[in-house]
From TrEMBL:
Classification via Pfam families: Pkinase
Protein name, entry field: Stress-activated protein kinase JNK
Catalytic activity: L-threonyl-[protein] + ATP = O-phospho-L-threonyl-[protein] + ADP + H(+); L-seryl-[protein] + ATP = O-phospho-L-seryl-[protein] + ADP + H(+)
GO terms (BP aspect): rhythmic process
Length: 131
């Protein structure tokens, strides 16, 4: 059943991304599962088109589901939705939030504690003030 939910979530995100849309706020409360296991993605209030020429809002996605690129104020695209899906699925498997930071710094520390230090290539992409 869980793999079917993941499949539906990824199909929904693929459909959005194919249409050039980034959801930007995927979290369990924005996903509903009906009794027949049909999954629906809700709340498109923060959704934006991926091909916009202006700077994306840096503060998006509920903290626990926020991708490293968003936490660190880097540029982002559709990858933020994929990260969020991974966090949601991890939460379903473990039964608790996997990166439960109290603020953006603690959030980043939780990610590093679980996944290790980022690669040198990733670190080079950071603003000097963040390094």
């Amino acid at each position: 059943r869980m793999s079917y939910l993941l499949y539906q979530m990824l199909c929904g995100i693929k459909h959005l991304h194919s249409a050039g849309i980034i959801h930007r706020d995927l979290k369990p409360s924005n996903i509903v599962v009906k009794s027949d296991c049909t999954l629906k993605i809700l709340d498109f209030g923060l959704a934006r088109t991926a091909c916009t020429n202006f700077m994306m809002t840096p503060y998006v996605v509920t903290r626990y589901y926020r991708a490293p690129e968003v936490i660190l104020g880097m540029g982002y695209k559709e990858n933020v939705d994929i990260w969020s899906v991974g966090c949601i699925m991890g939460e379903l498997v473990k039964g608790c939030v996997i990166f439960q930071g109290t603020d953006h710094i603690d959030q980043w520390n939780k990610v590093i504690e679980q996944l290790g230090t980022p690669s040198a290539d990733f670190m080079k992409k950071l603003q000097p003030t963040v390094r």
